[in-house]
């Protein structure tokens, strides 16, 4: 195995970590301190205004850990304001330091240390991504995730789900931020100017 936390490219493709079961569910690791992670970005949400953080995005992906892949959520990420060499794309593999998010009870939620973020590589097309996602497919279904969330469970909030059927795909143009969202941005801008 390669020395250090990150797996080498050959070990990622053929080593035990890639094809291990991974962790579709795990406990919140509060108090764990700062750790390093290698993350395959799978989802970048649309930017949302925040009074505390400004214009931010929430990012989900697969933490490529030695025991297999595990879901991770990274927030806040002020994507528009990142340095050009840190503006990652979907299916990029990034390296960064992070801490468990103390204010978010979801176990997969972490706070990124943005000045540590670097882009390692990009996986394109689907075939190189599949071995990372495959160990986590169908660990949960959407009904189970929704039920657990409604019951207040601190269980998983991210999963790879194979849809039984897709009736339609509906796309809508973004209407712009609401007055409440604009007020959040104004509050943030006022706070950073003071």
Topology:
Layout: H1 9-14, H2 16-19, E1 35-44, E2 48-50, E3 54-65, E4 68-77, E5 92-100, E6 109-122, H3 126-133, H4 142-150, H5 179-193
Parallel strand pairs: 4-6
Antiparallel strand pairs: 1-3, 1-5, 2-3, 3-4, 5-6
Task: Write a brief structural summary.
With 194 residues, the protein is α+β, with helices and mostly antiparallel strands. It has helices at 9-14, 16-19, 126-133, 142-150, 179-193, and strands at 35-44, 48-50, 54-65, 68-77, 92-100, 109-122.
Commentary on this structure:
With 194 residues, the chain is α+β, with helices and mostly antiparallel strands. It contains five helices and six strands, in the order ααββββββααα. Helix content is 22%, strand content 30%. It has a five-stranded mixed β-barrel with strand order 1-3-4-6-5. The longest helix is centred in the last third of the chain and has 15 residues, at 179-193. The protein is globular, with a radius of gyration of 18 Å.
What is the radius of gyration? 18 Å
Residue share in helix: 10-25%
What is the tally of beta strands?
Answer: 6
Strand percentage: 25-35%
Tally the helices.
5
Shape descriptor reads globular
Q: Which H/E pattern describes the elements?
A: HHEEEEEEHHH
End-to-end Cα distance = 50 Å
Round the mean pLDDT to the nearest integer and report it: 82
Low-pLDDT runs of 5+ residues are 1-20
- Determine the structural class based on helices, strands and strand pairing: alpha+beta
Give the neighbour order of strands across the main sheet: 1-3-4-6-5
For the largest beta-sheet, the strand count, sense and barrel status come to: 5 strands, mixed, barrel
């Amino acid at each position: 195995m390669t020395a250090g936390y990150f797996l080498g490219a050959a070990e990622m493709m053929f080593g035990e970590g890639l094809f291990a079961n991974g962790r579709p569910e795990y406990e919140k690791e509060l108090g764990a301190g700062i750790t390093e992670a290698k993350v395959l970005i799978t989802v970048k949400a649309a930017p949302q205004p925040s009074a505390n953080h400004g214009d931010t995005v929430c990012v989900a992906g697969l933490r490529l850990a030695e025991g297999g892949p595990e879901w991770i959520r990274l927030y806040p990420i002020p994507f528009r304001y990142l340095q050009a060499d840190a503006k990652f794309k979907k299916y990029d593999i990034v390296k960064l330091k992070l801490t468990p998010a103390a204010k978010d009870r979801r176990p997969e939620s972490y706070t990124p240390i943005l000045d540590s973020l670097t882009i390692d590589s990009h996986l394109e097309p689907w075939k190189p991504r599949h071995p990372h996602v495959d160990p986590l497919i169908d660990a949960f279904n959407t009904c189970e995730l929704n039920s657990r969330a409604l019951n207040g469970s601190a269980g998983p909030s991210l999963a790879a789900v194979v849809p039984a059927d897709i009736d339609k795909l509906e796309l809508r143009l973004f209407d712009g931020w609401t007055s409440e969202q604009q007020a959040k941005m104004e509050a943030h801008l006022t706070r950073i100017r003071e």
